[in-house]
Amino acid sequence: MKRMTLAVLAALLMIASTSFAATQAANTNTVAPTLNISATIQKAVSLTLATGTTGGVTHCAVVASGGASDYTMDFGTVDALGINGGNCNKFNPATPGVTDAIYWTDYQVTPVFTSHTAVSGTTVTARVTTDFAAPHNIYVVRDTANSSTVPAGVGSFSAMGTGSADTVGAAGVASGTALTRFIGVAVKPDNGATVLQGAQTATVTFTLTVQ
Fold it and tell me: 54-87 in b/e burial notation, b at 16+ Cβ within 10 A?
């Protein structure tokens, strides 16, 4: 019985010694405790706008506002005859008093996404979510080619969508790569009691979808 008790005691001492061996040890010059690290990974997305850098183009500044909208851009004083220079670039109407004048600029949009399992269908789109007030004698336009090629004239622009979104970056856009695109306002040669005058604003919403 005594021997059995001693055997049990020895076994308990061995278990105790094993339990504490990782953090402390006697009669040795090394000890090796372990630390279990844990974290919860989430996928993340970012879409930022910036002032354009295209050579030979006058840039309207993209300004981070921190207000009701994330960014602002001011095309300055515009008119349907192209008399005013605006803050950046302009195309005068092909037929003054009949066709539209367009004031435009380049800009950059940069999508960034991480820890997504599928990215080949990733797109960036833009849509006018708050339009200029009726009767819309001013409206937002974009470069029809949807590329970094500098527009050649009034015909290079189309009205930006107010219902469905327009593609800014086609499926497969790369994370961290800035896309250069062109945006502007077209001023129609309308007259009448309700035409817009003075300062006017519209809102464009850009959307990054990773898929």
Answer: beebebbebeeeeeeeebebebeebebebeeebb
